[in-house]
Amino acid sequence: MRSICCLLLASAMSFLKVEASLAQELSAEDRACILSSVAKLPNIPGLRVEGSRVKAQRQRNPDFYNVMVEIDVSIVGESATYVFNCIHNGQLTLIQPMGRSAGSMAQGLSVEDQACITSAVEKVPNNPAIKIERSRVLPQSRAARGHLYKVTVEIDVSLVGQSSTYVFNCIRNGELTVVQPMGIR
Fold this sequence. Notes:
The protein has about 180 residues and is an alpha+beta fold. The protein is built from three helices and nine strands, in the order ααββββαβββββ.
């Protein structure tokens, strides 16, 4: 029950940050587009909204409000920008995902590494005071045996000025990812 309360509090904090940034001279249409775009972000544990902006487009139809929305996010020390097309007409807001920027989140990590890091982040204690600083897959730990992919993942965290590193073994077989905690340094 306590972990559910912590998760709700963490979600509320992220939402309040977005809401506070929206209050700075944005139109009702812009706010509707940004909030609807945030709702379309992938459901990844530890994903944080860092910023947002609305980029105007040419209005072909004056009855529709059409803009591009960019949402800056971060997870485990990496960042990316998601882009959405937004059409707003009265009470209806239509959001179309347009893709993700090729930021540092997309560079240098294989699909297997990304899955292992995401699964390892889920195993870090769910405490809003823990800040995930960065993550890495140890290159020397990579081993592929047939369909099995095995690596060691390290997640650096900070809590009240103290730093720690959580270490995990990750085994991936196709779509199945298993992460085993190995310790804390």
